[in-house]
Structure formats: structure tokens, C-alpha cells
């Protein structure tokens, strides 16, 4: 069987959208607690999930000593937790610094003004003093079979029309390359998890993406009970697939042009196989020695 390190038969011109089963080494099982981000990864490619969350390879998105995005999120959380009349541009510097100080009590913050400038985009996309804040950084979770699916909503608020809004900040709003990369799909999952708390299943919500730099907001149509029920079934179907894959050592690699930007591209035997001329195998093996090094700590 071909292995990830064997590149002698590479043919970069052959790029097919295809599913290739990969026999993986036994490195453990999926955890019972799964984040919305991890589910999204599984949804896009089972094998990418296995690399990241079972084999614990590759860096998580938020890796690093600190992240500007995390500081900006924390700054906005602090802003919306203030009484409406105190939610001002002038307060942002102090809030950004307070957020930085949580993990860096004495260190100078080189990017303080940059953090403020990014966070200030919120004033262009939301009337921050008019919104009625219901919650910030709201934890949501629901159980599906053996999995507990968990997420965190940046901001819940009611607008001046009384509309319930589930909002997510994006330092930069990117155009999704495929429907599965659409952040609205993640937001719909948040809303579905949150809906267990709604006073009635008929509560309507809208999903809102708040891009900060450049400032741009995008709103969905109203989400109703039937939309959530449909999405809940879809989530359950994917988590059933995860449970099924987890009981075997066969995980499916979904090869597409977007594999170029996958963190595991250089170690992925499915991509290597898909690049071979027609007639290539539908199942390949991945050896433990061909994996990237494990993450230093589980994050
Ligand atoms: S490179 Fe493609 S097929 Fe391989 S793990 Fe990543 S997304 Fe899946």
C-alpha cells in the first residue's frame, strides 16, 4: 500500500474530488465532549478530524502565546457587559488593556492601539448603546448519543425591533470557499444548541456576523423551529458517523482542491492517492511514523 512519505508517483495535475478510506494507526478514540469547531472539521473531512482530535497532531487555531483576535473578543465582551451609557469608543483602550492584563500582568502591550482599532469596528456595525444585551460568551451544549456538543456564543442581544440576535464577531470576514466553510452554518449550530433554553420552540432568531476590519455586518433570514429541527437532524447524522468511524480504524479522507490549505496536507495519504492516475486505490494506509509530531499539550 502507498504511504504518505512515498511521493515518487505524484502527479500534481490529477486533482479529483473523491473520498478515499484511510486505515489509521490506533492512537486512541474520539472524546465524548466535542466542540462546534471540531464538528465542523469532521463535517468537512473525517480524516482531518482524526488528525486533529484523535491523533492530536497539528496546531489548534488559537495556538500561540497570545492572539489579537482573542484580545479583541475579550475587549468586546467587556464593552457589552458595561451599562449602555458607558459603552463608548473612549472606553476601548482601557478595556483592551484590561483584557491583555489577564494573562500578562506586567508586560507592555505593543499592539494596544491595533487591538482598539479592530474592536472599534463594532461601532460601525451595531448600535452598541441601543442593543439590549442578553448575554456575552454564552456557553451552549446539547447531548447527541455518546457526544456532548459544546460551543460559545459571542453575543446574544435584542435589537430595537425586539428581534433576538445570535451574533459572532469576526476580526475579518472572509468569503467562504464552500458552503461548509460558511460561518453562518456554525452560527446555526449555536442557535440550535441554544434553542433548548427558548421559552417556546416558535421563538424566531436571526444570526448575525459582525466583521470588524473592515466593518461589515451580515444577517440571516429568521431562523424558525423547523430550521433548527432540520439542522439538529443533520448534526445527529454527522455525530452518528463519527461514532461509527470511531469504532473502526478506517476514516474517510475527502479530497478536494481546498485540501491545499489543510494543515495535514503534507501527511495525508488520501491526497497522495488522489493525485495518482485513474485506477488508484479506494483505501490506503497511514503509518504512525508518517504523522507530524504530536502537539505539546492538549488544547
Ligand atoms: S488534506 Fe484533504 S483529505 Fe487530507 S485530511 Fe486534509 S482535508 Fe482531509
From TrEMBL:
Residues 277-299 are annotated as: Disordered. Residues 286-299 have a biased composition (Basic and acidic residues). One of its GO terms (biological process) is DNA repair. Keywords: ATP-binding, DNA damage, DNA repair, Helicase, Hydrolase, Nucleotide-binding. GO terms for molecular function: helicase activity. Pfam families: PDDEXK_1. It comes from the Bacteria. Residues 33-269 form the PD-(D/E)XK endonuclease-like domain. This is PD-(D/E)XK endonuclease-like domain-containing protein.
Amino acid at each position: 500500500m502507498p504511504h504518505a512519505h512515498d511521493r515518487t508517483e505524484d502527479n500534481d495535475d490529477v486533482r479529483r474530488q473523491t473520498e478515499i478510506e484511510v486505515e489509521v494507526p490506533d492512537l486512541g478514540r474520539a472524546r465524548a465532549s466535542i466542540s462546534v469547531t471540531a464538528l465542523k472539521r469532521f463535517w468537512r473531512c473525517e480524516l482531518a478530524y482524526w488528525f486533529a482530535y484523535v491523533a492530536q497532531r497539528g496546531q489548534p487555531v488559537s495556538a500561540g502565546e497570545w492572539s489579537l483576535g482573542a484580545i479583541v473578543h475579550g475587549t468586546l465582551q467587556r464593552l457589552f457587559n458595561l451599562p449602555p451609557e458607558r459603552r463608548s469608543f473612549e472606553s476601548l483602550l482601557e478595556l483592551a488593556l484590561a483584557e491583555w492584563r489577564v494573562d500578562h500582568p506586567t508586560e507592555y502591550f505593543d499592539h494596544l492601539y491595533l487591538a482598539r482599532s479592530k474592536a472599534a469596528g463594532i461601532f460601525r456595525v451595531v448600535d452598541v448603546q441601543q442593543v439590549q444585551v442578553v448575554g456575552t460568551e454564552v456557553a451552549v451544549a446539547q447531548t447527541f448519543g455518546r457526544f456532548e456538543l459544546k460551543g460559545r456564543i459571542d453575543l446574544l442581544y435584542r435589537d430595537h425591533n425586539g428581534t433576538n440576535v445570535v451574533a459572532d464577531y469576526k476580526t475579518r470576514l472572509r468569503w467562504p470557499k464552500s458552503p461548509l466553510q460558511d460561518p453562518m452554518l456554525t452560527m446555526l449550530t449555536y442557535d440550535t444548541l441554544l434553542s433548548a433554553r427558548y421559552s417556546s420552540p416558535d421563538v424566531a432568531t436571526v444570526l448575525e456576523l459582525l466583521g470588524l476590519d473592515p466593518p461589515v455586518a451580515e444577517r440571516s433570514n429568521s431562523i424558525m423551529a423547523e430550521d433548527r429541527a432540520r439542522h439538529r437532524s443533520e448534526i445527529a447524522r454527522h455525530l452518528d458517523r463519527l461514532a461509527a468511524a470511531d469504532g473502526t480504524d478506517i476514516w474517510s479522507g475527502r479530497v478536494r482542491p481546498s485540501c491545499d490549505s489543510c494543515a495535514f496536507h503534507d501527511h495525508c495519504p488520501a491526497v497522495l492517492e488522489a493525485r495518482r492516475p485513474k485506477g488508484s486505490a479506494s483505501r490506503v494506509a497511514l503509518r504512525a511514523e508518517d504523522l507530524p509530531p504530536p502537539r505539546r499539550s492538549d488544547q
